Automatic annotation (TrEMBL):
Signal peptide: none annotated. Pfam families: Phosphodiest. Transmembrane segments: none annotated. It comes from the Bacteria. This is Ectonucleotide pyrophosphatase/phosphodiesterase. PANTHER family: BIS(5'-ADENOSYL)-TRIPHOSPHATASE, ECTONUCLEOTIDE PYROPHOSPHATASE/PHOSPHODIESTERASE.
Amino acid sequence: MRPIFALFAAMALSACGTQPPSQPEEKAHLLLISIDGYRYDYNELHQPPALSAFAEQGAMVEKLAPAFPTLTFPNHVTLVTGLLPENHGIVGNSFYSPDMQDVYRAGKTDMDGRYYGGVPLWSLAESQGMTAATYFWVGSEAEIAGYRPSYWKPFEYIEDFQLRVDQVVEWFSMPEDERPQVVNLYFHEVDSAGHRFGPDAPETRDALHKVDAALGQLMARLDALPHDINVIITSDHGMANVEQDPRYNTDDVLRDHPELKEKFMMRGTAAVNHIHKMDGATEADLDQIVALFNATEGVEAYKRADVPLRLRFKGHNAVGDAIIVTNDHYLTYDGARPGPIGMHGYETAAVPEMNTLLMAKGPAFETGARIEAADNIHLYPLMAEILGLTIEHEIDGEFEVLAPLLAE
C-alpha cells in the first residue's frame, strides 16, 4: 500500500501541473556469444551445467537454422548483418572473388572490408553513437560500412579462456562514457573437437564443458555488475558424423577430361564446391562439366542461374559460375588430407544436425519463452531492437520472427 503522504504529494504535483522528475532510462547492454559448432541438441547430449541452466532459465529458439552453406565464416557474418551469404558476399570460409580477383582466406584477405556487404551490428552501433567491442569475430578486424568496433581483438587460435572472460568483464565494467553497450565473444574449441573426434565423442563433451566452465564464471561476474546485461548464446552451425559417408573425389571425375580441368578453378569444402571459369572457358565447357558431376547419384551440380531457390545461394558472383552440392557424400580432391569424423556445410532441411540453438537471458527477454524453429537471419533485427538502433538499410531478417522472445 502506498504511504498516505506520498499519495497527497502526488496529488499536489498533479494539481499544479508538475510531475516528479523521472529517472534516466538505463542504457541497454548486449553480449552476443558464439560457440562454434554448438549443435542444437548438445545441451541434452553433453549436459554442460552452466549452459543447461542458462537455457532452462531464459528464452530459447530450440532449432536455429544457419544459412546455406552451413559454414563458420558465412554464418558469423549472417548473424551480425541479417543477410544471407548470397547478399553479404562471404560465401565460404575461403573462396575466390571475381570482383577482387583474389582469394578470401582467414588471416590474409579477411581483414579487407571490401569483401563484406551489409552493416555489421558493431558498425551499426558505432554509426549511431554507441560503443561496440568484439573478442574474435569474423569481419571485426576490417573496416566495414565505414566503421570498426571501438575495441577489438585479432583472432588467435589458441588462447586461455580466462583472458576472454576477464576482458569482457573489464569492458562491461568501464565508466559509462567509455563502456561498450554491445560486445561479441567467440569460442572455436567445440567445433575443433567435433571435427576431429565427432559430435558424440567424449573429447567433444570435454571441450564443451571447458567452455561451459568459462561461461559459468563469466555469467556470475556479469551478474555482480551494477547494470543489467542481456546475453545471447548461439552458434554458426551444428555438426554431423560423416565418417561413413562416401568420399567423392572431384579430380576423379575430371581425370579423363584434362582439357576441362585446365579451364576451371575449383574451391570448396565437403558439402559445396565452387566452379569458376578461367580464361578460355566457354558456356559449353561449363555445361559439360556440370553434366559430368551430375552423373553421380547423391551429388548435384548447377550453373549459378539454375541453383535451386531452396538454397538461396545465387545472388552474388563470388558464388561459382557453377556449384557442386551434396548432403550424403564428402567432396574431396587429389592431395586432400583425410576427412575428419565431424563435418558441416550441408543443408539443414536434409541434415538436421546442421541446426544450432539460441538461448537468451536478461531484462529484454521473457523467461521461459520458446520458439521451436527459426532462421538465424532474424537475430540481427532483434538485437538492434534491444539496443534501440535503427536499421535503415535492406536486410533479409525480420524482427517479428523472434519478437516472441522479448519481455512485454
